[in-house]
Amino acid sequence: MGYKKSEISQAQIIDAAIRVLARQGYARTSLLDIAREAGMSKGAVHYHYPTKEALLQVVLQSATDKVQEQTIAAWQTEATPFGSLRKSLETLWQVRAARTPEALVVADLLALSLTDESLRPQLAEFYEVAAAQIREYLESNLVALGLRPKIPMDVLPRLVIGLLDGLVMQAFVEPDALKPEQVVQAIETMAMGLFAPEPKQ
């Protein structure tokens, strides 16, 4: 029973942390703020996460997991490889552009990491996981379409992420500047342009 209670407490803390970080930003958030949001004492939060940095690592993992769950769910609704690819790209964009708390937290941390080197290892890990997810989607779907990459497969997911996150930052500043369907079509076209048909045996 104690183990389950501990798990519930940690989930409450993580959810509260994401809400507060999205609302206030990392620099202005303390463990006390998160404790108040979670309806707990600071000591209870400190018991699970001694520092804000320790909690941040778990928050980023939670954000990654949520993006992955949504993308996989979208991927599995389509019957064809091309449909799965398009739906996955659409979901990756929507998750980032919808100003979800997770997207706001990551955007805030990216900006802060320009001057705060301590944030970079956690963000690097976040992007490692995201790149691995996108690589899996691309390999599964494009190989099924009989296509092979023109560039190293390790590079392609990074290009997709760079496009998505760069466009999302613009969307935060100019919400009406980009139409979702245009973004998805453009990324899809660029991604497809980096693949060529497999040579016939």
Concise structural overview:
The chain has helices at 2-24, 31-38, 42-48, 52-76, 81-97, 101-113, 120-144, 156-173, 180-193, and strands at 147-149, 195-197. The protein has 201 residues and is mainly α.
Description:
The chain has 201 residues and is mostly helical. The protein has two domains: 1-50, Homeodomain-like (Arc Repressor Mutant, subunit A, Orthogonal Bundle), CATH 1.10.10; 52-197, Tetracycline Repressor, domain 2 (Orthogonal Bundle). It has nine helices and two strands. The chain has helices at residues 2-24, 31-38, 42-48, 52-76, 81-97, 101-113, 120-144, 156-173, 180-193; strands at residues 147-149, 195-197. Strands 1-2 form a two-stranded antiparallel sheet. Helix 1 (2-24) crosses helix 2 (31-38) and helix 5 crosses helix 8 (156-173). The termini are far apart. 26% of the residues are buried.
